[in-house]
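Board notes (copied after class):
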Amino acid sequence: MALRLTGHEREHLFHLAGNGGAEDFDEPERLAAGVAAVPSLVEPNPAYVTGFCYDVLSRNTAAAELFGIAAPSNLARWMFTDPGARVVLVDWEREAQGLLARLRASAGRHPSHPRLTRLVEELQTASPEVRSWWPRYDIQVSHAGTKRLRHPRRGPITMTHTAFHVAEHPEQTLVIYSEQATAAT
């Protein structure tokens, strides 16, 4: 930190020096205050922002209630080590495979990042599904879709979700859920 470079400046400096990135740094991911505020702005819809390791960097109360996500948290760790994930996500196996494929894509972009490497090792130790699925090399990017969930107060619901990448930090993703409208008869 002696040069007081921003993340983008440090990344550029490493690129100029012939290193693909500042992967050796094990700093916590930072979220701009304006971006951190967005999930609260879309209440009562569940919303959260994740980083490249799937750390939950910001979330609103609706997301905390629906997913049981308390800060700080990590979606990948929750998915594979918290039995509550299998309760909340009706189609847990499909959702878990998709998240693992997105984590693999992130690992491909950051092959030597220590936090990401430790997370993958932790998940492989903790989860037989990760041990089985990781070698398949499935890759996926964040996208919109529909999920069937079990809400703690309302029971089974179907929600659509949309993922938005933060302009200044494209590895950070804002995800907003909304209840799927029912067709009029």
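Comment from the instructor: The radius of gyration is 17 Å. The chain has a mean pLDDT of 87.
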